[in-house]
Specification:
2 helices; Thiol Ester Dehydrase, Chain A; disordered N terminus
Length: about 140
């Protein structure tokens, strides 16, 4: 049995998306595979939106799975870096409230610190004025 047979269609799409940065490529080329819609990409900053739906929730639940919210945050973080080959090394996040089905969430990422091959990005995900996730992502660049 393949691993993706255990995932919902939305989860499978995210699993196949990976966390690759645009590396100077057109950000629109990522929208088919990655979660959310890219709104803004600028040096050191990105904004990604996602309108949640029932396929993103556990069966019978009104709440979106945390992995979906985390995937949107990761997507924004890698876009803010815009470094070819950058991969997620670590993420320290806090979920501050659950996300419900049919809510619009917005992830904003700010690349902050460089340490050799490591890059640190601060990400927040909000629904309106209310934060639903905040955290620090660490990415590594290839050797």
């Amino acid at each position: 049995m393949q691993h993706n047979e255990l995932l919902s269609p939305a989860e499978a799409a995210i699993a196949h998306a990976g966390t690759g940065a645009t590396g100077g490529h057109d950000a629109a080329s990522l929208t088919d595979a990655a979660p959310g819609t890219v709104i803004t990409v600028a040096p050191g900053f990105s904004r990604v939106e996602l309108l949640t739906n029932s396929a993103m929730a556990s069966p019978g639940s009104e709440f979106v799975r945390g992995g979906i919210v985390l995937a949107v945050a990761d997507h924004a973080a890698m876009l803010a870096l815009d470094q070819a080959g950058a991969v997620l090394q670590a993420a320290e996040v806090q979920f501050t409230r659950p996300v419900k089905v049919d809510e619009l969430i917005v992830a904003e990422a700010h690349a902050r610190i460089r340490h050799g091959k490591k890059r640190h990005v601060t990400v927040s995900v909000s629904h309106g004025e209310e934060k639903v996730l905040q955290g620090e992502f660490t990415a590594c660049l290839p050797a």
